[in-house]
Amino acid sequence: MGAMGRPPLGRRLAAFGTTIFAEMSALAVRTGAINLGQGFPDTDGPEEVREAAVRALRDGRGNQYPPGPGVPELRTAVTEHQRRWYGLDVDPDTEVLITAGATEAIAASLLALVEPGDEVIALEPYYDSYAACVAMAGGVRVPVTLRPDGDIFRLDLDELRAAVTDRTRLILLNTPHNPTGTVLTHDELAAVAELAVERDLLVVTDEVYEHLVFGTAHTPLVSFPGMRERTVTISSAGKTFSFTGWKVGWVTAAPELVTAVRSAKQYLTYVSAGPFQYAVAEALRLPDAYFDGIREDLRAKRDLLADGLTDAGFQVFRPSGTYFITTDIRPLGETDGFAFCRSLPERCGVVAVPNAVFYDRQDQGSPFVRFAFCKRESVLTEAVGRLKGLAAG
Fold it and tell me: How far is residue 316's CA from residue 327's CA, in Å, rounded to a whole number?
């Protein structure tokens, strides 16, 4: 116990201990297993982007505090990106904020926009930082659960509508969706937009996997009628360019929303990643061939791992986006994802993550397990070979 008999960790964060990613990564190291748990690539991104960071360091660009909203070159590149891919016009001076990755962007947005007691609707299962950020803001999490429908997970729009109350402040939307790989359709997004306008809700959208989509298209929610003034759009460089350690993200939104988010962000990190901001500005201007290439590379890796998991006896939900595959372990005679993932390294030398950690109601996610395919092809081939033992066993 801490001073006055209280535990050191405050009540808001008492439920958030060591993340499952830390536990499973430590298990991978201890057992020598192939780590398909945590979502980071095992090779760096484009050499010209890495060299752009080196050049910025050597030229003294960003080695001291960059401007609070982000360096002008990157803010301009973000606006060009939004216009190039989605036809959206964004003002680089008033409608863009550079953050320490998408994680800080989400935290700053929720801290800025949510008052204690406000309800925040999030699509469950959700990335674990969402729950912690809502808690830090004093908000109340209201999960709307994506459920299996054939070979994909689907959002129930009636359930979403029913979740909105007079206390709902915002919807936290993630598409392409981690961990299920679902990409919300145009009609689903249109329904979300109509609901937000009708009930006067803000929407924070996490779009970090916007370029990692397979045979489908990502459409930003902000492009729908009535959403410009109520949507905070978040993305980052880590997933698109395979430099996850650089932690360069961005917020685009109407000026009053960006001002609000910046008010919180400036007291979190103030600024970050100075030289890397210049490099990411160059990355965002890479030709279409780069974006096509990373998509096709990941599509092949998705299919390699998905086929291997199917052969090993899992039910596989082949993702439309992201670099994760969710599986159902019940065909293997298993029901407890935690126990399965903790035993998997010893059984066949592979590490995965139990999806239950992404649910408020963990029983909803108990039979689901997530694998990452953002690894070298040789690593995935080796993992598939090891997983064959499950079917034999």
Answer: 5
pTM score: 0.96
Calpha distance 35→7 (Å, rounded): 34
* Gap between the Cα atoms of 321 and 216, Å rounded: 8
Average pLDDT over residues 41-55: 96
Residue 256 clears pLDDT 90, i.e. is over it: yes
Contacts of 28 (CB under 8 A, 6+ apart): 34, 35, 37, 345, 351
> Is the distance from CB of 111 to CB of 133 less than 8 angstroms?
yes
Residues 6+ away with beta carbon under 8 Å from 225: 193, 197
Distance CA(105)–CA(101), nearest Å, equals 7
State both tokens at 330.
């019940």
Residue 196 in contact with residue 229, Cβ under 8 Å?
no
- List Cα–Cα distances, 392 to 96, 328, 348, in angstroms: 53, 18, 11
Residue 216: how many other CB atoms lie within 10 Å: 12
Q: Pairing state of beta strands 119-124 and 140-145?
A: parallel
| Cβ-based burial of 196 (10 A; exposed 0-12, middle 13-18, buried ≥19) | buried
Helix axes 274-283, 72-86, angle to 10 degrees: 30
DSSP structure string for 266-292: TTTTSS--HHHHHHHHHHTT--HHHHH
Pick the range with the lowest mean pLDDT from 40-54, 62-76, 379-393: 379-393
- Spatial CA neighbour of 352 closest among 389, 324, 331, 313: 324
Give the CA radius of gyration of the chain: 21
Locate tokens 């809502």: which residue?
134
What is the distance between the alpha carbons of residues 137 and 123, in angstroms, rounded to a whole number? 18
What is the per-residue pLDDT for 128?
A: 86
- Report residue 227 CA to chain centroid gap: 21
pLDDT in tens, 179-235: 999 999 999 999 999 999 999 999 999 999 999 999 889 999 999 999 999 999 999
